[in-house]
Amino acid sequence: MTSGIQVRDYTPTDLKQVEEIILTAENFGRDFLDHERRVVRFLHESPDTGRILVASEKATAEIVGYAAIRYGWRTLIIESIITEHNHLRLGIGRLMMDYIKQIGEDHPDMEIIRVDTGDFMDYAQTFYLACGFQISGFASHYLGWHNNQVIFVYRLKQAHSIKEGD
Ligand SMILES: CC(C)(COP(=O)(O)OP(=O)(O)OC[C@H]1O[C@@H](n2cnc3c(N)ncnc32)[C@H](O)[C@@H]1OP(=O)(O)O)[C@@H](O)C(=O)NCCC(=O)NCCS
């Protein structure tokens, strides 16, 4: 179902379509768009700190997904992952996630992928579990988001043994 879709790095000409995807995503509003604009600008200008990815239709170049990732210490952090709302449940989120996992596998310093989501966002939690993530923590009264956050982790380089507490 996703054979006609490619994941690639964002370029500034994608901005308008990316903004539409962010604005029409469930649960997010205008202030989130302002925040995401800053994230996009920063990561684009500082590629050693992370990457902005888009999923686009090969035939039409329409952008149908967007993801922002950041390199933390040993941890690849997913800041955002959004599928365009008319293209949900077609495998695009999983395709972007597989691409992100490969970035993490290829990066010498990354040991895990981390993503947080609100405890009320059942569909996002189901998505992360379907992508092989495990729940590793819970932050109650996460003030900035005005809700409780569930922390999901995916362990990279599973072929190699990573010592606990290392
Ligand atoms: C979460 C999100 C990125 C998933 O993207 P998607 O392209 O629809 O996901 P996929 O089609 O690749 O789904 C992969 C699997 O995840 C699970 N899943 C995805 N969406 C789901 C939903 N709404 N309900 C239940 N399970 C879901 C399913 O197991 C699915 O496999 P299946 O369709 O074969 O059953 C998408 O719902 C989205 O953009 N939501 C709005 C933005 C958002 O909330 N992002 C996450 C912020 S924390």
Number of helices: 4
Q: Strand portion, in percent?
A: 25-35%
Average pLDDT, to the nearest integer? 92
Helix content class: 25-40%
CATH hierarchy, class = Alpha Beta
Order of helices and strands: EHHEEEHEHEE
Q: How many individual β-strands?
A: 7
Please give the CATH architecture.
3-Layer(aba) Sandwich
The secondary-structure class comes to alpha+beta
Which segments are poorly predicted (pLDDT under 50) over 5 or more consecutive residues? Answer: none
Small ligands present = coenzyme A
- The strands making up the biggest β-sheet line up spatially as 1-2-3-4-5-7-6
For the report, how would you describe the main beta sheet?
A: 7 strands, mixed
* CATH level 4 superfamily: Gcn5-related N-acetyltransferase (GNAT)
Taking all Cα atoms into account, the compactness measure Rg is 16 Å
Question: How would you describe what is shown here?
Answer:
This protein is an alpha+beta fold and 166 residues long. It has a single domain, classed as Aminopeptidase. Helix content is 30%, strand content 34%. The protein has four helices and seven strands, in the order βααβββαβαββ. It has a seven-stranded mixed β-sheet, sandwiched between helices. It is globular and about 40 Å long. The structure holds coenzyme A. Coenzyme A (COA) binds next to strand 4, helix 3 and helix 4. The site of coenzyme A has 19 residues, from strand 4, helix 3 and helix 4.
